[in-house]
UniProtKB/TrEMBL annotation:
Parts forming coiled coils: 42-109
Source domain of life: Eukaryota
Keywords for the protein's UniProt record, in alphabetical order: Coiled coil
Lineage: Eukaryota, Fungi, Dikarya, Ascomycota, Pezizomycotina
Species name: Endocarpon pusillum (strain Z07020 / HMAS-L-300199) (Lichen-forming fungus)
UniProt name for this protein: Calcofluor white hypersensitive protein
């Protein structure tokens, strides 16, 4: 320990002793009782602070768990909605392909009918 630190600690201790002696009117026994009372208050405050820190940690832990649950629920919902959207897209593509196929068949059938109709009209055969 450096000399300055020792000197500072000694001055602080002497100042504390002087404060308690002054407050006690110079009576060392009364000063000692006041010091003990103040020490008990410090211990009480320290205990309350420790208790408050523990409660804060418990609250933090509980809140963290609730946040994780909320995020997991949100993620699950998003996944479900994404799957539903993908299924809807696939179903719409199948329906569109069916409609296009039906349209193509109809056009081909009408083209054949038109060809047959024109051929028979000009006497090239037909029905």
């Amino acid at each position: 320990m450096s000399r300055r630190a020792v000197t500072a600690a000694g001055l602080a201790a002497a100042g504390g002793v002087g404060y308690y002696l002054y407050k006690a009117g110079g009576d060392p026994k009364v000063a000692e009782k006041k010091f003990e009372a103040d020490s008990a208050k410090v211990d009480e405050v320290r205990g309350k602070l420790t208790e408050a820190q523990q409660k804060a940690q418990e609250y933090k832990d509980r809140t963290g768990q609730e946040m994780k649950q909320a995020v997991n629920k949100f993620d699950t919902t998003i996944e479900q909605k994404a799957r539903a959207a993908e299924e809807y897209k696939e179903r719409a593509e199948r329906e569109m392909n069916k409609a296009v196929d039906n349209f193509d068949k109809t056009v081909e059938r009408k083209a054949v009918e038109a060809k047959n109709g024109i051929s028979s009209w000009f006497g090239f055969g037909g029905k």
